[in-house]
Design the sequence.
């Protein structure tokens, strides 16, 4: 018994010495990187608004009292086609604190903050957006798309569930009857006039994922 105890202590000591040697070899630059990663992991669950801090699990009312009204409030209903009803609604609030701070995307479920994300640096929204077909690119958030191009000519929305999959080598095989993720999908159509093509923009959960041509545009009357 005593031998086993000494062996365990020796193993822990060796592991500690090995860790110290590993950290010394990393150098100060790598240690700083590790610290930043740890900081970002912690920062993802809190947000400072002035002198107040909000965190995941806070109510929407508490967040609004601390941070004010968001620049965009986006409802993303999740629909179950098997039951023919909405079973959950995600609400995403976008805060734009200006050019020197990151855009913040706060995701709520059932009135509680469940996630805090970022979307690049903030900006001053243009008073009169001037959009061209080349301004429509994959990866834009809904807030950036609206700020850049304004409201679309038409929009269509639907909600669907993503099926569970089974991995078979490099193949992904859907498992019938099992669903794991809800997707809120929107199709926005932008018209750039008779000299250009209509653009159909596909958004999933508030992010542009595809852009397609949709016939000849037309001049507004």
Sequence:
């Amino acid at each position: 018994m005593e031998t086993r105890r000494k062996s365990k202590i020796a193993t822990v000591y060796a592991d500690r010495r090995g860790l110290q040697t590993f950290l010394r070899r990393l150098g100060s630059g790598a240690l700083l990187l590790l610290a930043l990663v740890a900081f970002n992991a912690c920062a993802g669950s809190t947000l400072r608004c002035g002198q107040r801090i909000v965190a995941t699990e806070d109510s929407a009312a508490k967040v609004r009292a601390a941070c004010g009204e968001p620049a965009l409030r986006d409802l993303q209903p999740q629909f179950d086609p098997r039951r023919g009803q909405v079973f959950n609604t995600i609400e995403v609030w976008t805060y734009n604190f200006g050019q020197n701070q990151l855009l913040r995307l706060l995701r709520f479920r059932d009135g509680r903050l469940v996630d805090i994300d970022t979307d690049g640096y903030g900006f001053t929204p243009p008073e009169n957006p001037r959009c061209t077909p080349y301004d429509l690119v994959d990866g834009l958030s809904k807030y950036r798309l609206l700020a850049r191009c304004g409201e679309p000519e038409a929009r269509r929305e639907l909600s669907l569930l993503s099926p569970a999959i089974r991995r078979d080598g490099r193949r992904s095989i859907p498992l019938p009857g099992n669903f794991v993720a809800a997707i809120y999908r929107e199709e926005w159509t932008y018209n750039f006039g008779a000299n250009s093509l209509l653009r159909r923009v596909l958004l999933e959960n508030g992010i542009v994922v595809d852009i397609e041509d949709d016939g000849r545009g037309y001049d507004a009357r």
User: Anything to note?
Assistant: The chain has a mean pLDDT of 79.
